[in-house]
Amino acid sequence: MLLKRELIQQGKIDEKLISFKGEGLPEKVIQFGEGNFLRAFVEWMFHEMNKKGLFNGKAVAVQPIPFGRAKEINEQDGLYTLILRGIQQGQVIEKKEIITSLSRCINPYENYDELLKCAENPEIKYMISNTTEAGIAYDKEDSLENKPPKSFPGKVTAYLYHRFKHFNGAPDKGMVIIPCELIDRNGDKLKEIVLKLIQDWNLSEEFKEWVEQNCKFLNTLVDRIVTGYSEKDVEKIREEYGYQDKNLDTGEIFHLWVIEGDEKLKEELPFHKAGLNIIWTDDMTPYRTRKVRILNGAHTMTVPTGFLYGIDTVKEAVEHPVIGKYMEKGIYEEIIPSLDLDKKDMLKFANDVVERFKNPFIKHYLIDISLNSTSKFKTRVLPSIIEYVKRKGQLPKILTFSLAALIAFYRGTVIKDGKLIAKRNGEEYEIRDNIEALKFFKNLWNREIKNEDDFKAIVDKVLCHEKFWGQDLREVEGLKATVATYLKQIIERGMEESVAKLVKEKEV
Ligand SMILES: NC(=O)c1ccc[n+]([C@@H]2O[C@H](COP(=O)([O-])OP(=O)(O)OC[C@H]3O[C@@H](n4cnc5c(N)ncnc54)[C@H](O)[C@@H]3O)[C@@H](O)[C@H]2O)c1
Ligand SMILES: O=P(O)(O)OC[C@@H](O)[C@@H](O)[C@H](O)[C@H](O)CO
Fold first, then answer.
1. Which of 83, 106, 274, 368 has its CA 20 to 30 A from that of 207?
2. pLDDT of residue 18
3. Exposed, middle or buried: residue 325 (CB in 10 Å: 0-12, 13-18, 19+)?
4. Ligand nearest to the CA of 292
5. Atom of ligand 2 nearest to the CA of 182
6. pLDDT of residue 508
7. Are 487 and 459 in contact (CB under 8 A)?
8. How far apart are CA 480 and CA 492, in angstroms?
9. 430: exposed, middle or buried (C-beta count within 10 Å: 0-12, 13-18, 19+)?
10. Domain at 5-281, CATH homologous superfamily
11. Can you give the pLDDT at residue 454?
């Protein structure tokens, strides 16, 4: 029996899972993205507000690409179970609940008019999105003639244009747009692309002014580890509660949403009154830097090293005697000293991150985090290396090693179904990144390696590839030689020996 509204109405679902039925609430939010993260973060927050009568509305999701889970969401009337679990003040906490703040999911590739109809709804004032870092991108080939436009910003532009025309440019029908993508100043970036598309598509000056004056694009930073579901979780729910849930979602208890916005918005969206951890600020930059460099940086520097060591999850990594040490040294001795933020605050954040990584309920696979590692390394790890060198006049050895590990991790020679295939201990694994990056590494490793010079040549090619790093990394003193030495060790002696030696070393 599939989770559906009628099961709740007929009293067939355990009452413990239903704290708020959400019947009859109007749609107030249009949400681009129907992935695990949004459902465990934003929908959960609207649900929490609804419970307390603070929002009284639902979100309607839109599938931003041709493939997704619109069908599954609609089959379950937008309902899904959310399991939040972790350790809080030494106590094991597990909360299971059916979230009722999602009304449905529109697939604009099948029903574009449904999407445009939402733009005509005066009650839908908020737009949320999470389309991954790849989503907020300018596509000069996109067009209003595409129904729907291909890109996410294209869809937003078409949506806003339809709303503008429907309400004859009424100033009070502007939207509050709150993107959650983990890119720097996500709101500003989305706005910039929307304005560019308005120009490309020759839309009226009045529309452009309406967007500029009446639509607010907020910059935000989100933080919660969400890992989706496993078949085991689905099976457990079926056994315990008797229903099947194709949209089950799981995450940690910790959550933080930093939003750049004013008091008026804070009152309109009173997340804080529902006890949620939301920071309204006029500058989100320090929060973003802290999170991306410490938490995401720790993930990205650990993934290739830990994975090639034979470890599969973040929890195993942080608790491993060698890899755990590698990770902590990287965070406390290299990332934090490269940051210009309040020391006490950073240490507290880092300690919490290490605790969060140890969450016994979260199986966060290194191979999943490895997605798009080249661009992640550029934004999440490289700035710490550059800043550390500037401040200390020497290379941070763990982070430098992680670059060598990244090159070793991308040691594949065949591309199959858009993935580069490499081997760990004789077993194949898939490297997922943009196709140019995969081709680059495939060509890079397709050579005979006889001596030290060959490793140097490989590293030279990677470091000078400005498309990855936005700069020529050969200019960082000593980086090429050190990465080449580490890479040679990893390939010739294996990750285990190399990293064990590294964590014992004093200096580079
Ligand atoms: N999972 C987490 O712990 C977590 C935490 C914070 C932030 N995030 C961010 O969320 C993103 C992943 O989201 P998820 O965990 O919900 O994954 P997911 O795969 O469940 O969902 C991804 C969503 O992005 C959309 N999408 C993918 N590529 C797109 C493209 N090119 N254009 C437009 N839309 C596209 C998909 O349709 C889907 O709605 C990451 O980029 C990450 O930065 C994730
Ligand atoms: O989601 P990604 O792929 O951008 O990055 C992987 C993880 O670093 C990330 O999901 C973190 O767990 C998350 O950013 C915590 O808030």
1. 106
2. 97
3. middle
4. 2
5. 4
6. 44
7. yes
8. 18
9. middle
10. NAD(P)-binding Rossmann-like Domain (3.40.50.720)
11. 95
Is the CB of 225 within 6 Å of ligand 2?
yes
Closest ligand to the CA of 288: 2
Do 5-281 and 285-504 show the same overall fold?
no
Q: How far apart are CA 232 and CA 239, in angstroms?
A: 10
Q: Report domain extents, the chain.
A: 5-281, 285-504
pLDDT value at position 91? Answer: 84
Rounded CA gap, 180 and 217, in Å?
11
Given this model, what pLDDT does residue 506 score? Answer: 57
Question: What is the CA(225)–ligand 2 centre distance, in A?
Answer: 7
Do the beta carbons of residue 481 and residue 452 sit within 8 Å?
Answer: no
For residue 157, the model assigns a pLDDT of 98
**Cβ of 259 below 6 Å from ligand 2:** no
Tracing tokens 């000593």 back to the chain, one arrives at 478
Give yes or no for a contact between 276 and 254, defined as CB atoms under 8 angstroms apart: no
Distance of CA 344 to the CA centre of its chain: 26
Enumerate residue ranges in the chain where pLDDT < 70. 506-508
Residue type at 282 in one-letter notation:
D
The angle that helices 152-166 and 205-214 make with each other, rounded to 10 degrees, is 100
In the reported structure, the alpha carbon of residue 251 is separated from the centroid of ligand 1 by a whole-number distance in angstroms of: 14
- The amino acid occupying position 128 is I
ipTM: 0.95
* Structure tokens that stand for 501 in this block: 């030696």
Q: Which CATH class is domain 285-504?
A: mainly alpha
State the pLDDT at residue 90.
76
What integer pLDDT is reported at residue 6 of this predicted model? Answer: 95
Rounded CA-CA distance 244/248 in Å is 9
Q: How would you write 191-254 as a 3-class SS string?
A: HHHHHHHHHHCCCCHHHHHHHHHHCEECCEEEECCECCCCHHHHHHHHHHHCCECCCCEEECCC
SS3 171: helix
Residues with CB under 6 A from ligand 1: 33-37, 63-65, 68, 130-135, 152, 182, 222, 224-226
